[in-house]
Amino acid sequence: MKEPVKSGKPRPPRPTIFLDIDAWIDSSLYEAGFKARQFWENLTIFFRRFRVYGWRRGAVELFSEALTLGTGGIVVLLALALPAFEQTAGDWRAQDDYAVTFLDRYGNEIGQRGIIQRDSVPVDELPEHVIQAVLATEDRRFYQHFGIDFPGLARALFENVRANSVVQGGSTITQQLAKNLFLSNERTMERKINEAFLALWLEANLSKREILQLYLDRAYLGGGTFGVAAASDFYFGKGIKDLNLAEAAMLAGLFKAPGNYAPHINLPAARGRANVVLNNLVEAGFMTEGQVLSARLHPATVVDRGERDSPDYFLDWAFEEVKKIVPRGATHSLVARTTIDLNIQRAAEESLEFHLRQYGKDYDASEGAIVVLENNGAVRAIVGGRDYAESQFNRATKALRQTGSSFKPYVYATAIEKKEYTPDTIISDAPVYWNGWAPRNYGRGYAGRVNLTTALVKSYNTVPVRLAKDHLGLEPIQQLVEAMGVESPLNGHKTMVLGTSGMTVMDQATGYSVFASGGLAGLRHGITQLTTHSGEAIYDYYRDAPPPRRVLSERTVAAMNTMLVQVPEWGTGRRAALPMARSAGKTGTTQSYRDAWYVGFTGNYTAAVWLGNDDYHATKDMTGGTLPAMVWQRLMAYMHQNIDLKPIPGIENPLPKMEAEPKVAAAKPGQAQENGLDQRPLILSSRTTALLRKMSRIFRDAPVIDPPAGQETLSAL
């Protein structure tokens, strides 16, 4: 019997399906590859017509290489631009929203800061000759360039080479505004790169009118004035809209160097500079010689303001402090009573300038900064540099400089506070190794077993390193430094214990003031009261400031001060010893002699002194025990005349010891020793001594200790 035949197409065996799939894949890949080759061949044939030969091929190759290098350059430029663009974070436009009139501690007006927008005269309302005078002198192609004027740079370079000196600057108004808003006056390549990027950023984000408005409103023009409106009122006693051409030319001449051309200080120089501005107006084609002739024949005169000595570095810092403490919703037009003492401020400025003029070239040191605090926390003086008109960068509150050995007291204070060590605790001054780091003492020798007092007074390096490595760790030290009021960020590296972290002069004074105040932090203040112009008090330090906090025990303070008072008596700071009061302090010197410090205190005041160079180049063997200690000593000697001497906490007698100093090994001539080995007096003639006594009116009434006959020394002044 036959089986029935099934209807429909028979189903192929399962292996046949896989063969069909494999065949389809193979054929598809082949077909895709064929089409790709065909497309590439057609593309090649198409571009073959553009093939060049001979010199044209060389040009194409050069263009190709330039494009490659340009792409790499753009990547590098973007990497360099990132630090610059970080400066633009925050509401930088509103930094001058407040207008504050400042008074000193006795209620006398000392200056103003800030500008309210309604007091700023819009560019469109300024006289045309004022705008033309500024542009002709500062940036003739302001409306043609995009932040950087390359033709202007080339012209300035040519003129400077031809004159063999700097006679023209190549910076545009936008670059100068970028520096004023975001950067310092430090003459470094990094700053110039950041300035260029920020200038481009400003041009991309602001209109030309806005850039010019900010420049005219915020440029420093001498006499403690910022902006053309304030300068017009200060120098000429009239509004900016009422200036004639001669006055506008004199005002425009101040942008370059207000310290040199300020008319209330040097009227002939200001008039000479104004004549240069008039020449620029003619050369730029803004005016004809006939139009400027009257201004040449009748130069501007200024209002007699008398001698005005504005503490500008202090005012800049105090302005920032006002913005921190002003209550929310308060009026923006304020009167601030500050803690500054102008007598101390002038003495600090005089001491710094006196020593830099006298010895700056010998040590190759060009700049310095000082902060003075009364031991109740009141900031009495801030010196942020030698000349505010030349550089408004506040080295006392903004410059982060390595502290060297002046950081060591923080390490010793941590050891005494946390481990209950004493000044007599014995520790080894011997080679120490810490993860490949082997610090050595300044003199390359070791003293063996010493107590903490000797180690600190002699500034041995191995002892604080050993304390941190074997006994403390870095975190407790860092925590204590922050608790003592230091706001500068510490690097947290093991080398921190020898002062490799950058700190400001203000922070150093704040930290040491904890020793001087008996262990209390949070006392520092520069504003005692904020009021409206009608007299309403909106802030009072004694009412609104948080209470001080104890960060060091009385035992630790007494132990630290017992050691620190010996530094100026037989240690590295003997040039800082005062004839009328016992003092305590510590020297500091960084690697390659880039920075030198002396930070010290008495029962009345704390002062921090830094000397060095803005571009970080090394000084000539300047240590903290030399010039900084001398600056500190001269200043403090003045400040302690005719006042009640208070004892240093933990030290009963405020008067200096009269006992003989321990003998110290003599240093070779010309050597400066951080460990106190070069303490030879500077021998001066009696005539020179007499002249030095008469140089400063500040010291006119101060008593002078007469040295032994034939041995007039600087330490006696």
Walkthrough of the structure:
There is one protein chain. The strands form 5 sheets. The chain has a 5-stranded mixed β-sheet. The protein has a 5-stranded antiparallel β-sheet with strand order 5-4-16-15-14, sandwiched between helices. A two-stranded antiparallel sheet has the order 6-9. The protein is of the alpha+beta class and 717 residues long. It folds into 3 domains: 125-297, Biosynthetic peptidoglycan transglycosylase-like (Penicillin binding protein transpeptidase fold, Orthogonal Bundle); 344-680, Beta-lactamase; 681-717. It has 24 helices and 16 strands.
Unreliable segments (pLDDT under 50, ≥5 consecutive)?
A: 658-717
CATH topology of the largest domain, anyone?
Beta-lactamase
- Residue share in helices? 40-55%
Determine the CATH superfamily of the largest domain. Answer: DD-peptidase/beta-lactamase superfamily
CATH architecture verdict of the largest domain? 3-Layer(aba) Sandwich
Mean pLDDT across the residues is 83
By CATH reckoning, the class of the largest domain would read Alpha Beta
* Rg of Cα set: 34 Å
Number of domains: 3
- Tell me, what's the shape? globular
Largest sheet, in brief, is: 5 strands, mixed
Separation, N- and C-terminal Cα atoms: 141 Å
Oligomer category = single chain
Question: Treating each run of at least 4 consecutive H or I residues as one helix, how many helices?
Answer: 24
